[in-house]
């Protein structure tokens, strides 16, 4: 077994300053820029992730960050108020942009959106 002290994940963004404004200003995460120009995010619950600049950044084609919320309708309203547009993968979302998985026994209620670098994020209610 691997002896560890800490673990974290990370993903690339095209512009660190733009990412900092989004992840702190829109999503409300605690964000700090370290000496290497990498953003350290403290996520709800205490987990951490890093966002690193990449000149040839290509957005992930999968969800890089899931954000669990108590009330998905309230979270979607907050995102809309902040100017965030939801994505409708597969055409299954309702008029609010939420895929209602709970009501059909197919997982959580979930809504997807993009960060300024085009990475896929979600809010979900389990």
Commentary on this structure:
It is a single chain. The chain has two helices and nine strands. With 126 residues, it is α+β, with helices and mostly antiparallel strands. The chain has one domain (9-125): 2,3-Dihydroxybiphenyl 1,2-Dioxygenase, domain 1 (Roll). The strands form two sheets. Strands 5, 6, 7, 8 and 9 form a five-stranded mixed β-sheet that branches. A four-stranded mixed β-sheet has the order 1-4-3-2, covered by helices on one side. A hairpin with a 5-residue loop joins strand 3 (39-42) and strand 4. The longest helix is centred in the first third of the chain and has 11 residues, at 16-26. It is globular. It starts with 8 loop residues before the first strand and ends with a strand. The model has no long low-confidence stretch (mean pLDDT 93).
Q: Top keywords for this entry?
A:
126 residues; VOC_core; single chain; Glyas_Bleomycin-R_OHBP_Dase; VOC domain-containing protein; five-stranded mixed β-sheet; 33% strand; alpha+beta; 2,3-Dihydroxybiphenyl 1,2-Dioxygenase, domain 1; four-stranded mixed β-sheet; Glyas_Fos-R_dOase_dom; 9 strands
What's the name of the CATH homologous superfamily? 2,3-Dihydroxybiphenyl 1,2-Dioxygenase, domain 1
| Unreliable parts | none
CATH topology group: 2,3-Dihydroxybiphenyl 1,2-Dioxygenase, domain 1
What is the averaged pLDDT score? 93
Class, according to the CATH hierarchy?
Alpha Beta
Number of helices: 2
Estimated radius of gyration: 15 Å
**What fraction, in percent, of the residue positions are helical?**
10-25%
Order of helices and strands: EHEEEEHEEEE
Largest sheet: 5 strands, mixed
Quick one: overall form?
A: globular
> How many beta strands in the DSSP annotation?
9
